[in-house]
UniProtKB/TrEMBL annotation:
Domain BART: from-to ranges: 17-128
Keyword Hydrolase among UniProt keywords: no
Name of the protein this chain belongs to: Cilia- and flagella-associated protein 36
Organism: Palpitomonas bilix
Protein family per UniProt: Belongs to the CFAP36 family.
Length: 219
């Protein structure tokens, strides 16, 4: 019976420990914690550089960071009824994922100045890298836009040349058509004049014929 009780107590302690870890990690991953904490880190990490000197500004920011985190943790522990000792135990056991380790390291960095400094230096480098990547993407995008504008300009010029060629062809065809119609009109006019003259000649010949005959009779 004693062995059974010991095993039962161990199982219960293990289950509670796992529950504590899940609850703690869940809180550390929630927006109610990450937003104010990461906001503080991102805002102030630019001050930190990777040197051996521990500036006075670092210690001041460390104290401010502790106040922010302590207030968040106190509200959380009071809400779920955990003691600070139970919370510390869950943090020391740590998590398996990168996000869990990062969140738990934030808690451990609260009282450890060197851990706090390492965290701030690391975040500063991450933000610098993000800025460089963003600048590179913007430069690549700008270069792509310039190339697209050049291609559009070349395409527009080629289209303009094609339009000019089509216009010249249309003008040429119009001139040729007009000239052909003019030639046809001149030929028709000449033919009409010729026919008119022939008709007039025949008419004149027809009118003089009786007079000639009468003159011949008088003779």
């Amino acid at each position: 019976r004693l062995t059974f009780k010991i095993l039962a107590d161990m199982d219960a302690a293990k289950e509670r420990s796992e529950w504590l870890l899940d609850v703690v990690v869940g809180f550390l991953k929630s927006p109610s914690y990450t937003v104010p904490v990461m906001g503080f880190i991102d805002e102030h990490c630019i001050v930190f550089d990777d040197d051996d000197e521990n500036k006075f500004a670092y210690t001041e920011l460390h104290e401010d960071f502790k106040r922010v985190v302590d207030k968040l943790l106190d509200d959380f522990l009071e809400e779920i009824g955990l003691t600070p000792e139970e919370f510390t135990e869950a943090c020391l056991k740590g998590g398996n994922s990168h996000l869990e380790r990062f969140s738990l390291n934030q808690i451990l960095a609260v009282d450890d100045f060197l851990s706090f400094k390492r965290m701030m230096v690391k975040r500063n480098k991450e933000l610098e890298l993000e800025v460089l990547r963003h600048m590179k993407r913007m430069q690549d995008k700008k270069g792509q836009l310039v190339e697209e504008e050049k291609e559009e300009q070349v395409s527009s010029e080629e289209t303009g040349d094609e339009d000019d060629d089509d216009l010249q062809k249309a003008i040429k065809l119009s001139k040729e058509s007009f000239a052909a119609e003019a030639d046809d009109s001149d030929a028709a006019l000449e033919e009409a004049i010729r026919l008119s003259l022939e008709t007039m000649g025949e008419a004149a010949a027809g009118e003089s014929s009786p007079a000639v005959k009468q003159a011949q009779l008088l003779k």
